[in-house]
TrEMBL record:
This is Cytoglobin-2. It comes from Sipha flava. Pfam families: Globin (PF00042). GO terms for molecular function: heme binding; metal ion binding; oxygen binding; oxygen carrier activity. Residues 46-56 have a biased composition (Pro residues). Residues 56-203 form the Globin domain. The gene is cygb2. The lineage of its organism: Eukaryota, Metazoa, Ecdysozoa, Arthropoda, Hexapoda. Residues 1-57 are annotated as: Disordered. Belongs to the globin family. Keywords: Heme, Iron, Metal-binding, Oxygen transport, Transport.
């Protein structure tokens, strides 16, 4: 983590997929070039210092993700519901920020059709992400778009970081025989990278809104 950024090349999803001055660097450049376009006036808040990008996924991690996802697929609705119910249990403020789930008893949520549908949408995205591990540019575009949507849904950036750890706890019972520190690290790395791009895009949307409001 410490040496993040300067030595990174390629999409942050891949060390191997390097194509020169791209990936996290390009991502930051895109954000800052957008910022430069928008930031002509002094009152526009400066871009906060970018947190260092997470470690890109290794080939081994991509393989592990692909293999373990195949095993998870049949349990995915259950995994999605458990992910969100545990997220709401441990972070009630996140539940309150979801309009349809605000104030709903957790026991009722466990059987809620709406929660299941939402969880399935999120899981379908994880499936897309796993399917695009070897097409990092496409994955980055999808994540930026998703981040932008989440800004408009009113999701807070800090909440985006909370999904990965809950998802990882939820998949463990389905992967007992395959579970290892390596598997854990691979899923952690995927969610860190996804959250990093989504949050960058949410922050860019916020700056855009501030700029629009100011003019
Ligand atoms: C890694 C994190 C996350 C992923 C991958 C994810 C994924 C998704 C996807 C794929 C959708 C459907 C978008 C569409 O249909 O166009 C969605 C919708 C939504 N998400 Fe997330 N999400 C994440 C985190 C969060 C968080 C932390 C919040 C709020 C605290 C949130 C709130 C919402 C809301 C309000 C919607 C719209 C309603 C709905 O589709 O049911 N999401 N999310």
């Amino acid at each position: 983590m410490g040496n993040a950024g300067a030595t990174r090349r390629g999409s942050i999803f891949s060390k191997q997929d390097s194509t020169g001055d791209e990936g996290s660097t390009r991502h930051n450049k895109r954000l800052s070039s957008r910022q430069n376009t928008l930031l002509e006036e002094e009152e526009f808040p400066p871009e906060p210092p970018a947190s260092p990008p997470p470690e890109p996924l290794t080939m081994r991690q991509k393989e592990l993700l692909t293999e373990t996802w195949k095993l998870l697929e049949e349990d995915i609705a259950k995994v999605g519901v458990i992910t969100f119910v545990s997220l709401f249990e441990t972070h009630p403020d996140v539940q309150q920020s979801f309009m349809p789930f605000k104030g709903v008893d957790l026991e009722d949520l466990k059987h809620s059709r709406q929660l299941r549908d939402h969880a399935l949408r999120v899981m379908a995205f994880v499936q897309k992400a796993v399917a695009r591990l070897y097409e990092p540019d496409k994955l980055e575009t999808l994540l930026r778009d998703l981040g932008k949507k989440h800004y408009h849904y009113g999701a807070k950036q800090k909440y985006v970081d909370l999904i990965g750890p809950q998802f990882i706890l939820a998949i463990q019972p389905s992967l007992v025989d395959q579970w290892s520190q390596e598997t854990h690290s691979a899923w952690t790395a995927l969610f860190l990278n996804m959250a990093y791009i989504m949050k960058g895009s949410m922050a860019a949307e916020e700056r855009f809104k501030v700029k629009k409001t100011a003019t």
